[in-house]
């Protein structure tokens, strides 16, 4: 399973889900689904999210130990 730190990074920047969604061009519901691990973003979307946060993809997404 691919985990992420989106919620933490949003909190550090005081961004809402809607603000992040607007920055990357997707819906707020998509951000919710990614944060709750119901949806794994495409590589392109993962890059867009990383660019929005100005961090590398590996600072956001990581593989959970099984």
TrEMBL record:
Residue ranges of domain HTH cro/C1-type in the record: 6-60
Listed InterPro entries: Cro/C1-type_HTH, Lambda_DNA-bd_dom_sf
Residues forming coiled coils: none
Keyword DNA-binding belongs to the record: yes
Xref: Gene3D superfamilies: lambda repressor-like DNA-binding domains (1.10.260.40)
Keyword vocabulary terms for this entry: DNA-binding
The keyword Zinc-finger is assigned to this record: no
SMART domains: HTH_XRE
Family annotation (Pfam families): HTH_3 (PF01381)
Name of the featured protein: ISNCY family transposase ISH7A
Organism listed in the record: Lentilactobacillus diolivorans
Phylogenetic placement of the source organism: Bacteria, Bacillati, Bacillota, Bacilli, Lactobacillales
């Amino acid at each position: 399973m691919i985990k992420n730190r989106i919620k933490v990074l949003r909190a550090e920047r005081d961004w809402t889900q809607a603000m992040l969604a607007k920055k990357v061009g997707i819906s707020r519901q998509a951000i919710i689904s990614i944060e709750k691990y119901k949806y794994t973003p495409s590589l392109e979307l993962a890059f867009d999210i990383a660019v929005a946060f100005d961090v590398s993809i590996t600072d956001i997404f990581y593989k959970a130990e099984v």
